[in-house]
Inverse folding.
């Protein structure tokens, strides 16, 4: 939308600075630099306006990447802790297991019932359907709470970790274009710092996939809901648990790494 606003201002307006401002608001710094360089009478805007805005954004972007890394690591470490505690519980190392299992079974039953109801009763009243959907979303948010002690905390953590991965991976083009803009203004040092930080972040994400999305998670989906004397009910319960996750979040993220790095900075 900022690019469209820029084109409209450039075509129908008379204030070149205002047209550039739209590019900066959209963090389209490299394009802003190109536009200014094409208008020799406005080159002063680079030092007066574009450069300060770009440096401020880089500082903000690097801080956000650092914060996201902290959150990702905290969620991953907590997931490992929760899985250890769950295994200890299954091994009978904690007392009061029976009460916890009943509560969890009830929650699973409610969730399974609500999920199946999504595809039934389509002829019922719109108001009732809306209330049902609203209640279902409220219940699912409760189940996917990151609050420590939530019976489904591991599922909530996997959901949050998947969201973090996709959020960070989708910034490849933005980081690349920001580094290009910095180099265009002869600011190789901050460009190199940003590229190095983001590259380390992507490596951290990819190296964590096997820890987060385990083989058990992948194999559990091959089960069929046909109880028999040999049914592994623990595995069946896991299948119900993982059903709380959107299908694409039950497996390692399929990420597309583009050619985002500026080789001169590598």
């Amino acid at each position: 939308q900022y690019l469209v606003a820029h084109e409209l201002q450039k075509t129908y307006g008379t204030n070149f600075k205002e047209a550039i401002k739209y590019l900066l608001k959209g963090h389209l710094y490299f394009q802003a630099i190109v536009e200014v360089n094409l208008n020799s009478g406005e080159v002063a805007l680079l030092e007066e306006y574009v450069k300060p805005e770009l440096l401020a954004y880089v500082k903000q972007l690097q801080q956000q990447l650092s914060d996201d890394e902290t959150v990702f690591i905290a969620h991953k470490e907590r997931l490992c802790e929760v899985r250890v505690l769950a295994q200890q519980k299954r091994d009978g190392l904690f007392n009061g297991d029976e009460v916890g299992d009943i509560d969890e079974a009830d929650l699973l039953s409610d969730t399974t019932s609500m999920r199946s109801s999504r595809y039934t009763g389509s002829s019922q009243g719109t108001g009732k359907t809306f209330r049902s959907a609203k209640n279902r979303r409220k219940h699912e948010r409760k189940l996917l709470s990151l609050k420590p002690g939530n019976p489904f905390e591991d599922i909530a953590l996997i959901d949050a970790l998947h969201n973090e991965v996709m959020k960070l991976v989708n910034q490849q083009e933005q980081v690349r274009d920001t580094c290009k803009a910095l180099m265009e203004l002869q600011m190789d040092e901050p460009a190199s710092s940003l590229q190095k930080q983001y590259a380390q972040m992507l490596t951290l994400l990819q190296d964590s996939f096997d820890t987060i999305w385990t083989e058990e998670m992948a194999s559990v989906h091959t089960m069929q809901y046909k109880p028999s004397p040999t049914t592994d009910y623990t595995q069946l319960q896991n299948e119900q648990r993982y059903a709380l996750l959107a299908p694409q979040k039950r497996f390692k993220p399929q990420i597309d790494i583009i050619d985002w790095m500026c080789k001169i900075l590598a």
